Amino acid sequence: MSNAYENILVSVVMAFYNGDNTEIAKITIDSVLSQTHKNFEFIISAGGNLSDEKTEMLKIYAEKDSRIKVLRSEINVGPSNSRNRGVEFAAGKYISIVDSDDIFFEEKIKKQLEQIIEKNLDFVGCGYIEFRNDHKQELGKVRILPKTGKDIRISLPFANPIANSALFIKTDVLKALLYDEKFKPGDGEDYDLVIRLVKRKYTGQNLSEPLFYYRLGNNFEKKHANLRCSIKDLQHKLKASSVLPFWCFPFIFASAIVAFFCRILPPKLFSIMRDFRHKIFGG
């Protein structure tokens, strides 16, 4: 990486809540602090009343590394609000989003920074490796998402082509759009953001390699395979349909209906549907 890239400040934004697992969050924080690109600020936006354990954990990290900045709010109004507070506070030229249970590869920021500058893009995503349970146990499927801007647009009405912790974006772009705060956890606020990025013709790509571990959690299917999430996912897909020619709509609608019913069936079927969707659309 050139000296010019090394001097560019990146803002990493992570939402954090009392319900998050402290030990898992430590692994996430450590993965950010281990980045080969050293010039970043790490904004941890904490929503709601934190336990003494979590408060002390954040205090210790902030005292050990001056790049960590902790934002506190006594009211927990959801992940979108917490992320937006971090985004609005960000001073970097670019923002890297991380969920509090995912794990960055040490060159994630470096590689995405190079890509967004050298390709003159507004945002960059990447692939990831799914896993469950404890740190790096049961390492699962490698997910490589649609690479080019055209591929992202084509896949958008069928699946989210940019995972939340994959998002690396120009700060001014994200400050202009922000996450929609009407969404509750599990409603797909990250999917909605990507839809708005594409519809407003911001340019983006996915790096064709995994750059972080995506933690599914033991209850992932139960959390996402339910009526509320099914309805929100259907709404996102129909909203995204306008990015493709009108004659594609019957196929998009049929695909969205199939996905809807898969989500309200037993979790095992939802898991099978996810695997099939990744093979076809990458999202």
Question: How would you sum up this structure, described in words?
Answer:
- By secondary structure, the protein is an alpha/beta fold.
- The protein has one domain: Spore Coat Polysaccharide Biosynthesis Protein SpsA, Chain A (Alpha-Beta Complex), CATH 3.90.550.10.
- 44% of the residues lie in helices and 20% in strands.
- It contains 12 helices and 9 strands.
- Strands 1, 2, 3, 4, 5, 6, 7, 8 and 9 form a 9-stranded mixed beta sheet that branches.
- A hairpin with a 7-residue loop joins strand 6 and strand 7.
- Helix 10 packs antiparallel against helix 11.
- It is globular.
- It starts with a helix and ends with a helix.
- The model has no long low-confidence stretch (mean pLDDT 89).
According to CATH, the homologous superfamily is Spore Coat Polysaccharide Biosynthesis Protein SpsA, Chain A
Shape category: globular
Secondary-structure-based class equals: alpha/beta
CATH architecture: Alpha-Beta Complex
**Can you tell me the CATH topology?**
Spore Coat Polysaccharide Biosynthesis Protein SpsA, Chain A
Which percent bin holds the helix content? Answer: 40-55%
| CATH level-1 class | Alpha Beta
In short:
With 283 residues, the protein is α/β, with parallel strands linked by helices. It contains twelve helices and nine strands.
List keywords for this structure.
9 strands, alpha/beta, 283 residues, Spore Coat Polysaccharide Biosynthesis Protein SpsA, Chain A
